[in-house]
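Narrative of activities, Objective 1.

The group set out to show that a structural description can be obtained from nothing but a protein's sequence at a throughput compatible with the screening campaign. Below is one input-output pair from the validation batch, recorded exactly as produced.
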Amino acid sequence: MTAPDFSDDTALVKALATRDSDAFAYLLDCYHAPLVRLAQQYVPSRAIAEEVVQETWLAVIQGIDRFEQRSSLKTWLFRIMVNIARSRGVKESRSIPFAPSATLDGDPVVDPHRFRRFGRGRGQWKRPPHPWSEPEGNALHAETLETIRATVERLPSAQREVLTMRDLLGWSAAEVCDALEVTDANQRVLLHRARSKVRSALERRDDEDRHR
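Output recorded for this entry:
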């Protein structure tokens, strides 16, 4: 017997609607780990993130019959998880719900003092970013990863979730917009701000290393 092709959304949804255990196993294999990873951005511990994802799977089982495939199964699944995680994050006093009014914070992407303010060179770099390469050695690599982790953890929630989806989970811009229900313009601004803050943190760490 030929194994069903669950890589096709339509076939997978039909199988899930019949409560096919192989279909649910396929879904778990594909998405459980990424769901937990993203859920951890909202709640204070992995244990709570696991609870959020378990609640998500229950919601999927209960709601699959109502899924109309207006979006991909993947983004529908993650949208359910994000909504549950946001609510749980608020309950745990760790996060706030995403709101369109909170998508654009007032922080400058780059320190304005790094640009020339007057004269013919106005708006140009006074101190441009210096190139940095992959660190040599496991210790420096670990420091870099810790800098990135700590910076991402301090990002505003909207920036953190977009960065996590785009750069850690490898989602496309369209998938992020669908899952988080934000416009493409907001998604691009949030991602740019988040990436800039991470890069700035890496630059500061690199400067500190150079002056040691």
